[in-house]
Design goal:
This protein has 301 residues and is an alpha/beta fold. The chain is built from 9 helices and 9 strands. It is globular.
Length: 301
């Protein structure tokens, strides 16, 4: 007898830098969300669509919980918390090295309690601790909420991801396919390229500059060369807060901008499966993090 097909929506929440984006990519087996060692990398809700013959799971990665310093930060927190109430299941991701429940996790737990949804406690980075320490972490958090399941994982090594998918499937209701089988994200190719460029900037620039940038792709055009080769012409602008930041992003003789562009182009070619002609500029847009017309782009649609 065939199993009934299950489908539903899952929210992935946690503090900054606990590995949400790495986990999303591991579950989807595709690069959907950018990953860096910088905090507050994810700015908006990004969906991964996981489909097989038994289920379709739509998992939304949300911005990390932090203390907002501007309108952009406030929008990120609003997005993260709004996703807790509108799903069939919540994945609460924590760091296995935690020895206490900090302020950020306490806020998330309060929202989870308010929502009253089935919630799986996902403990990441288990390769960094011993088994007895893991038991203490499980006991610590289990006192705070009656979790539907507890799943220890290593998102970086994609360890425990199949067990997590299995636990999610148990919770989801019988339902339809909301997306086609070959779809794995709701992000457009244009949005993915914007994020790839930002990822490289986050990776190569110092601490102060990256969080003051956003990327906009102005041209995204497919054509064939005179030799009949497929190619995408992509033009993008990195916006930053200050002239001094612009100089850092460009680098001496344009070396930093070239480095960011080269690595972003390589990833874009891998994603699109064809050659890419990428041109990137840098412009100053002061206080963009406070401007509604820009910040609204990061709001949950």
């Amino acid at each position: 007898m065939n199993k009934e097909f299950k489908s539903g929506f899952v929210s992935l929440v946690g503090r900054t830098n606990v590995g949400k984006s790495t986990l999303l990519n591991a579950l989807a087996k595709e690069k959907i969300a950018i990953t860096t060692n910088k905090t507050q990398t994810t700015r908006t809700a990004i969906k991964a669509i996981i489909t097989n013959e038994n289920h379709q799971i739509i998992i939304t990665d949300t911005p990390g919980i932090h203390k907002p310093k501007n309108k952009l930060g406030e929008t990120m927190i609003e997005t993260a918390f709004s996703m807790i109430t509108e799903v069939d299941c919540i994945l609460f991701l924590i760091d296995a090295t935690s020895t206490e429940i900090g302020r950020g996790d306490t806020r998330i737990l309060e929202k989870i309690k308010e929502a009253g949804k089935p919630c799986i406690l996902v403990i990441n980075k288990i390769d960094l601790i011993k088994k007895e320490e893991l038991a203490k972490v499980i006991a610590l958090y289990s006192k705070e909420y009656n979790f539907t399941a507890v799943v220890p994982i290593s998102a970086y090594k994609a360890k425990g991801t199949e067990e997590l998918i299995s636990e999610i499937e148990k919770i989801l209701p019988v339902g339809p396919k909301y997306y086609e089988e070959d779809e794995y994200t709701d992000q457009t190719s244009r949005q993915l390229v914007e994020e790839l460029i930002r990822e490289k900037a986050l990776k190569f620039l110092n601490e102060e500059v990256p969080h003051g940038i956003y990327v906009e792709v102005e041209k995204f055009a497919f054509r064939q060369t005179s030799k009949g080769e497929d190619i995408y012409d992509i033009e993008a602008t990195i916006y930053c807060l200050r002239e001094s930041h612009k100089g850092i992003i460009i680098g001496k003789g344009g070396t930093m901008l070239k480095k960011i562009s080269t690595y972003a182009r390589q990833d874009a070619e891998n994603m699109l499966g064809t050659k890419v002609n990428l041109k990137v500029w840098v412009k100053v847009k002061e206080d963009w993090q406070e401007k509604d017309n820009i910040v609204n782009k990061f709001k949950l649609k």
